[in-house]
Write a structure and sequence with these properties.
Layout: E1 5-14, H1 19-35, E2 40-42, H2 70-82, E3 85-95, E4 98-106, E5 112-117, E6 141-144, E7 149-152, H3 161-168, E8 174-178, E9 182-183, H4 188-210, E10 213-217, E11 219-223, E12 230-233, E13 237-239, E14 245-248, E15 255-262, H5 263-272, H6 275-278
Parallel strand pairs: 1-2, 1-11, 2-3, 7-8, 8-10
Antiparallel strand pairs: 1-15, 3-4, 4-5, 6-7, 9-12, 10-13, 11-12, 13-14
Helix pairs in contact: 1-2, 3-4
Length: 293
Amino acid sequence: MTKDHFTIAAVQMRVAPDREANLAQAEAAVGDAAKRGAQVVCLPELFTGYYFCQKEDPALFDLAEPIPGPSSDRLAAAAKKNGVVVVGSLFEKRMPGVYHNTATVHAATGELLGLYRKMHIPDDPLFLEKFYFTPGDLGFKVFPTPAAKVGTLVCWDQWYPEAARLTALQGAEVIFYPTAIGWHPREKAEFGEAQHAAWETSMRGHAIANGTYVCAVNRVGHEVLVGDGLEFWGGSFVSDPFGRLVAKAGADREEILVVTCDRRLMEDVRRNWPFFRDRRIDAYGNITKRVAD
């Protein structure tokens, strides 16, 4: 790989109820991606088990782990064994009563480079995350690695242009979005196509506005903890800095997308669309207000 290129992988997987099975599958996927040339591998949001936020149950806090802890140690070992950077996503127990939805970044040596704690926390039917997660307090993060400058955001963050912008301003060459998003089965026929299109379009817009690569990594499968459960729509993708889809996974199957990213394309796009040059930072004070009265 030349200095102008780096290769990333998105692991779209079907999640089982059993943590051990999911960790073993993730480890195998990291190895597979590495063999295909990936230097940075990203796993889906909260991949160690079913998406538990479908209901509010205090007993489910027992699923949380410290970081470092058993699951993050497995990710560290997978990173070291395969010589790749691994972006994970775990339910973090920080202290009794304080829990986060946390992205981990392990270097190719297995070293924990740092954490990103999900900043935007949703509270929608079957996505009851405010019950479980304290909003992140580490700010927006970029992790320098020998392969690339890696930005990490998580799922609901993907709707916020401010999050992508503040990550890009720190030099991110790729922004990963570990994700767990899907349809309410009874709504799929009426709203499903529009919901999926909005999700993808939002992130492709972030890629364009920031002249960077974007990689969304979702799960697949129908997970039922309450009522009809959630049907996760897959559709993991990589967008280039021009907003073009470089690779996209299907809606109903496990896949590993491996994409080589081109820094020269980033430079070319930013030269021709110099959004960073033309930003009016003197005029954006109201962005920090709830309402610009």
